[in-house]
């Protein structure tokens, strides 16, 4: 379940070659290729081959970054409209109510939003319907555009959402950094959560909420700064 919903990586070892011949790659064209290799990725995890699975993930990242999205128009839970990269670069986050890392990322995201809201638009696309998403919207800064899904795909396909033509199919949370040319300049998945676990030496390791928040804040800040550095390229 974790590998399917939170990691959801797939193999695209030849992505650089197949896409390199195109002047402008479209994000909308990546899904069929990525899903073709997803079974091999799952086999790698099932076989305990973490190195190969991470190679698949790096290949997916290479496929997504550098591709272009359309001028998608999203309607928020309070009926506002936001268009991708209409005036400012945008950070699109995909989330779900049942995703613990998604919830853990919110405090750090809100801090980032207050720092960068004049320079970047922040959009959160939820797997959930309008009613549940409206309940969750109160957790976010008022400067965040919170968008519900019209259809919830469940079971093995619950890692997918499709809103206003923007299709995401690799789990939650994930962040797309999109510049004013509608180019995805950075893509990242996952977030740190407060937890305790047994380390390789047998000793217990504890990550506090404060440590998790600091880690998530640092990662998001780095990504937003990268977006602003590449906001029109």
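^ Assign residues to that structure.
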């Amino acid at each position: 379940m974790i590998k399917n919903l939170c990691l959801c990586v797939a193999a695209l070892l030849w992505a650089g070659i197949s896409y390199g011949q195109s002047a402008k790659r479209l994000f909308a064209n990546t899904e069929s290729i990525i899903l073709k290799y997803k079974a091999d990725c799952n086999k790698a995890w099932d076989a305990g081959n973490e190195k190969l699975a991470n190679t698949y993930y790096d290949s997916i990242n290479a496929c997504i970054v550098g591709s272009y999205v359309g001028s998608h128009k999203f309607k928020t839970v309070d009926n506002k409209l936001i268009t991708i990269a209409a005036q400012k670069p945008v950070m699109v986050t995909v989330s779900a109510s049942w995703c613990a890392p998604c919830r853990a990322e919110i405090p750090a995201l809100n801090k980032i939003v207050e720092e960068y809201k004049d320079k970047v638009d922040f959009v959160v696309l939820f797997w959930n319907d309008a009613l549940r998403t409206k309940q969750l919207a109160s957790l976010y800064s008022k400067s965040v555009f919170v968008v519900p899904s019209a259809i919830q795909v469940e079971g093995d396909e619950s890692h997918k959402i499709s809103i206003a033509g923007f299709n995401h199919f690799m789990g939650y949370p994930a962040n797309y950094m999109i510049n004013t040319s509608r180019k995805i300049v950075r893509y990242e998945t996952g977030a740190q959560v407060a937890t305790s676990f047994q380390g390789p030496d047998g000793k217990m390791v504890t990550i506090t909420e404060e440590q998790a928040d600091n880690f998530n804040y640092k990662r998001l800040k780095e990504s937003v700064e990268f977006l602003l550095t590449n906001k029109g390229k």
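The helical segments are 2-7, 15-20, 31-46, 50-64, 100-116, 130-137, 209-229.
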